[in-house]
Amino acid sequence: MHVDHEVPSSSPPQPRSSPPEPATSGGADSHGADSHGADSRRADSRRAALPRPARHRLRPRPRVWLLFAALGLVIVWAAIRLGPTGFVVAAWSAVSLIMFIVAALTLSRTQFAWQRPERVDHVDLTDQEPPQVPISLIVPARDEPVLGRTLQQILAGDYPHELLQILVVVSEDEIDRETREIAQSYADRYPCVEVIAPRGDRRSKPISLEDARPYCHGDLIGVVDAESLIAAGLLGHVNTIAVRHPDVGIIQGGVQLMNIRAARGRDGTSGGGSAEPPAGDLGDGSAEPQRRGRSGRRGPKALIARFLTWCNEGTSWWRVRNCLEYYVWFMSRLRFQAQARLIPLGGNTVFVRRDVLTALGGWDATALTEDCDLGIRSSARGVRTLVFYHPALTTREETPESLQKLVVQRSRWMLGFIQVLLKGDWRDLPTLRQRLLAIEMLAMPFFQALAGLLLPTSLILIFVLRAPVVLVLLYWLPLGIAVMLVVAEQAAFGEFRRSYRLRSTWLDSVRLVIGAPFYQLVLSAAALRATIRLLRGQLEWEKTTHLGAHHIVPTPRDPNSRERDLAPRGLEGVS
Length: 575
Hints:
With 575 residues, the chain is of the alpha/beta class. Helices cover 50% and strands 9% of the residues.
């Protein structure tokens, strides 16, 4: 089904109570008015169950103010009493203390899921309910030539098409012509696939989500990115959770970046931009060995290709850390957030009950991080969120195209977090602990970037400044936590490789260690860029380019390997 409707170019679309009559050009027929009437009744009952809490004012405890006041007085006293050197010593002691707190919090959140075994082993893939929950999947797509593989992966899953509705949101401009044709080709072949093509100049993911929301008929509304490869059993497991936990309003699955190195194309450059599996691909992500003829071993073209491959891999040191970040976030940090009942939802593989989403007012079409914004609002309204993680159920994605695109992506995320912080919905959280945790979570990317810049300076001052032994030890504390983080990352990286059966070498571990301080500098650059864009009022959406590199990276483990499978069996938690 292909749906056209006008979207004003001057302002993002507002949520609609009911969709206009669509013009059908293939695919499934739309449901009648009875469905929308039932939606309204369920939404009314859900609104009654989601009372808007009274807005709280953030009032830190007096001892917190006293601590900061005392710290400031010590610095002022040192400047007056001891001169410039004393001022530097006192000020840097305060900075080191803040760096230590940031590093300690990061380490604690990173290791949360591994501190107790019961926090990990909770997903049973064998105990599943029969499919019975109608699910609507929204796939926002903008200039995505890899869309075909994503739709193919969804349709090849084990969830019945009769219970599945796939809404692909594209644009009516020339830029999106190829993506629109791919989406329409699937809509012509599969009744459960529908294409929505809004007219309008302003396009972004949250706007696309809001455009598609009125057309969703499923009891669960899920979001899948256009380049994602979802697991075959994902929807079946989501169905099981929805049936067994009727009090859970939001279900968050795991997402994992897969290409720890840049994918090798046939020309030696990063590849994987095809919508269909590349030649030699076996369909499950494993690549069939290619025969190399005489021309593949010699000649200037082969030498150039090898040189480009070497350069590409050499400048992709950050990818392994980017992949590990996702693993730790969904494996541990998100579990901590769920237990704290304050969860910034992911923008992919998240499923919301339709009446809950209606009661929350849908997605904020002006937000840069609509997922985080929805998570904060749902936490403030007391919506229960269930988080699960299992390597066999994760949605697979790719790292950004280049280091520059990583900076652009992270600056958008940081700017979106600050946008959510300034919006102030976190003030509706019921407890002071939750509100303080929200401030920490939304501002932590900037603190981490600042710590990355200050750590080298701290190392220099350790050997230059003359200070009491106690203060020198304080200067060393952030470095000690950083070393512990590196060790923990190596352990997590080993588990990540075993969980996903990835081929890696010792060079990947070396890149992970050596690249740590440089990666912090990259995050610092992203934080600086986000700050500049905030001051300039540049809040427009910046799209991340997708090449489909993760479509050719995963390889099955050698059946003759004797390596013991130490992969965790899963992670599940309810907030």
